[in-house]
Amino acid sequence: MLSGEPRYRIDQLQRAVYRESATDFEQILTLPTSLRSALTHRFRFESLDSVRTEISSDGTRKALFRTADGAPVETVEMPTERAGATTICLSSQAGCGMGCTFCATGAMGLTRNLTGSEIVDQFLHFRRRSEAKRMPDRAVFMGMGEPLANLREVKSAVRLLVDPLAVGLSPRRVTVSTVGLPRGIHAMAGWGLPVSLAISLHAPDDRVRAELVPVARRFPLDTLMDASRRFQRQARRRVTYEYTLLDGVNDSPAQAADLARLLRGQRCHLNLIPFNVYPGARFRPTPRAGIRAFRDGLRARGIRATVRRTRGRDISGACGQLHAGALAGR
Ligand code: SAH
Ligand code: SF4
Q1: Which of 112, 223, 284, 291 has the maximum number of C-beta atoms within 10 A of its C-beta?
Q2: Would you place residue 1 in the very low, low, confident or very high pLDDT band (cuts 50, 70, 90)?
C-alpha cells in the first residue's frame, strides 16, 4: 500500500498512530486524501472496539473493549500520586487460565491470548483521549491475564511501549506482574530492557500458596525464589512481591515472620494488597488493623513493605475484579 509512497510517509503514519490523538486515518492530515481513504478501506486503525467506559468516584476509569473476534477485554486507568499523570493497567489475555481462587478473572477461564497490537492499543486508547491534566505515563500488566503465559506478544508489546519512535515510555515505567512462572522470569531477564518485575506471592509456604495459586503446585517457592534472585542479579533490579491479604488465610503474625524469612537478603519490595471482593468471592478481606499489623511485623524484620491503595472498587476496576461482565451477568 505504501510501496509507491516516499519513505517519510511511514514516519508520518507512525508518528500519527503512536504520538498524536488521531482516532482514524481520516484525521491524519499530513497524508494525502487518496492515501487516507485507501488506508481506511484496507485497515483497522484500532484493533479493539470500545464498548463502554465506567468512571469511579476516585477518578479511576475502566474501559471494556471487544477484539475483532468478539473477545472481551478490560483496561483500567488510575490517577497516580504524581499530579497529572495516570497509570494504565493493561490486560495481556482475554480472561486467564491460571485459576487463582481469589481472582474474578481466574473464574472466567481463558478465552485467548491478546496480540501485541491489542495490548498496546489499550494504552493508546487512553492516551489519545487524554487531557493535559491526565496523561498516561506508566503501564502495568496487572489487568486480565497472565503476561508470562503470553510471552511472545507481551514482549512485542513491551518493545513498542518503550520504543522512542512508538509509544516512548521510560522502560522503568513499565511493570510486568506475574503469577510466578520461572521460565518466563528467566526470559524477561534476558530482554535487555530495564522493565520492572512484580511477582504475586500471596503465601510464605507452598501449602497455602497452592490453595490460592494452583500453578504453585508445578512451581514451588524454592524454584520461584531462585528465578527471582537470578532476575535481581541479572537485571540488577529490585523485584516487587505482591501479597493479597485474605482474612484468616495468609495474614497471621507467624506468616508475616515466615514471609520475612523467605525474603531476607533479597533486593525487593513487598506490596500488600487489600483483598477486593466480587460476586461469588470465597474469601474475606483482612480488616484494616490486621493489614497494618502484618505490614509492621514485616517492617520490624527489615522488609520494605507498603500497602497498596485500592482504586476503582465501585466500578469493579480494582485488582482482581476484572471479569468483563461475565460474573455479574452485566
Ligand atoms: N496475572 C498477573 C497479573 C494480574 S493480577 C498476576 O497474577 O500477577 C494483579 C495483582 O492483583 C496480582 O498480584 C493478583 O494476585 C492480585 N489480585 C487478584 N485478585 C485479587 C483480588 N480479588 N483482590 C486483590 N488483589 C487481587
Ligand atoms: Fe490470572 Fe493473575 Fe488472576 Fe491468577 S491472579 S487468575 S494469574 S489474573
Answers
A1: 291
A2: low
Predicted pLDDT of residue 258: 98
**CB-ligand 1 contact for 213 (6 Å cutoff):** no
Output phi, psi for 38, to 5 deg: -65, -40
Nine-digit cell at 61? 476509569
Task: Grade residue 327 by pLDDT with cuts at 50, 70 and 90.
Answer: low
Instruction: Give residue ranges with CB within 6 A of ligand 2.
Output: 96, 98-100, 103, 105-106, 145-146, 179
Q: Which ligand is nearest to the CA of 291?
A: 1
Is there an atom of ligand 1 within 6 Å of 95 CB?
no
Atom of ligand 2 nearest to the CA of 146: 7
Dist. CA 281 → ligand 2 center (Å): 14
Query: Which cell is 308 given?
Result: 497498596
- Work out the angle at residue 222's Cα, subtended by the Cα atoms of residues 218 and 225, and round it to the nearest 5 degrees: 105
Using one digit for the tens of pLDDT, what is the confidence trace for 280-318? Answer: 999 999 999 999 999 999 999 999 999 998 889 888 888
Q: Of 158, 138, 270, 147, nearest to 204 (Cα)?
A: 270
Quote the CA–CA distance of 319 and 312 in Å, as a whole number: 9
- Strand 85-89 versus strand 72-79 pairing type: antiparallel
Q: Please give the positions annotated as active site.
A: 74, 319
Q: What are 22-81's pLDDT values in tens digits? A: 999 999 999 999 999 999 999 999 999 999 999 999 999 999 999 999 999 999 999 987
